Amino acid sequence: MVNKMTKTKTAIFPGPGQIEICEIDLPPLGDRQVLVKVKACALCTWEQRFFKGSSPDDYPFRGGHEVSGEVVALGPEAKTDARPGDGVALGIMTRCGSCENCRRGMDNFCENDDNRHLPGQTWGPGGLSEYVIVEDYQVNKAALTYNFPALALSEPVACVIRSVDNPPLQKGDTVVVQGVGVMGLLHVMLLQMRGVRVIVSEPDAKRREKALLYGAIGGFDPLENNGLEMLKSLTGGKGARAVFFTAGGVPAIESGIPLLAKGGWMCLYGSIHPKGMLSLDPNLVHYNELVLTGTFSHTKASFRQSVTLLSQGQIDTAPFISERVQFPNVKYAFERAISPDTYRVVVEF
Prior knowledge:
By secondary structure, the chain is α/β, with parallel strands linked by helices.
């Protein structure tokens, strides 16, 4: 199918706190590429950091990687079951399939997922655009009835799937989730699907209450107590089989490790900004056989699972959307997204 679109409006970050809406040329549609009309783009904390202020070398930047839309045109050799008019979620990060990491099944570490140095192009995923051209493997067809703003959260769900699947949990185990923003709440929901009991560590009382509504069996304020007595009473003194860090910085990680049972896993889902050094007694790890690990980004496999769960209604991300903002009001959308009273803000097109 011939691509008749030659230009698109897109949001570019010239510097901290700045958003410009520019019209750029769309390249010709490649043989295995897909033209998608963007319908919704959720504003991740990653893009929020660029808005609040990052390294000068990071600008200009084209943000937007939590994206859903509608297929407009297909390249003649595109290998996807999606057709023009179909709703899709986009795994918009590069997963080349050819580098060593991709061939090892670690496509979240794709060695070609970096377009900072492409001549004549502003770097970044570019999902905050009216139209995008993506590779066929980045297109994930969704159920016909699925709403686009909720579908845009396929990407964070795909990331959390990898996180909750990481430790070898058994049904009936007890775990702790540190921080219950969007990522923490998704952990609560997906961990329940593994048949485990979830306790949340969160200083905000309203967020703790929300986590209880989504299935957590208890919660505590880490600024007032360390939660150890609660865990002991629930586990016969053994502790948590896993602690999932989503927010709270280095102090949260340091307070989470003592909560672990023998053989427990400390799972670092969230990144630390600003960076900090972790104080850790290596004997605690040695004598208790603890595992300290991280989870970064999604894979093509976890993205497929995410879209399937959303399409089948097993997970509903719509309640996590605090506000919907119409393009091109992207600057206002980011001002709302960085506010502590919001979960996810979505730009609609």
